Amino acid sequence: MQPLFIATERFGPWDGKAWVKYIEWSKLTQLKELVSLDGLLCEPVLSVTKDEYWPYIVNEDYMSDYFTDLNYFLNEVSEIVNKNILCVFKNPISSPKAPSGKLKFEFLGYDLVDLEGSVSALSNCGGFPLAFSNEELNQFGLLESHDRAAKIRILLKAYYPEERHAACHLWAIFRARTS
What we know:
3 helices; 179 residues; alpha+beta; 4-stranded antiparallel sheet
């Protein structure tokens, strides 16, 4: 499994009214911060794909925000503040391990994001009660168990076949430690 790297905007209580409205709508009162690959709630901080990025990014549909070269990526995001530096794994068959090196990554959980890579079925669809309970999500809006995330992925497709956000990729998410 190849680790991929992305930097997203942080979304939490420091966002004031936007956070309050989100918590009221989502009913995810256990959240301390949302850390997700949902591009609507936690937007990538590099909003433009520069021509020089192509050798260092994933060259697939909906994947140009994901870098394959950590050092190049870190250089590109070094001046951006208020970001989460994430190491992610797409559709891992088991619990992955973050790469070791000077940057230390902490495992946060698993996200289920639609096939277009824009919406999290866990944190941006209002819930899918036949597949999972909102109380299963941790303080970051993620699932803690690979097995449970894989099971929910199957249940989403089975119980909600007409819902376009129910067909998902499973993502393991690690965040760089800041201290």
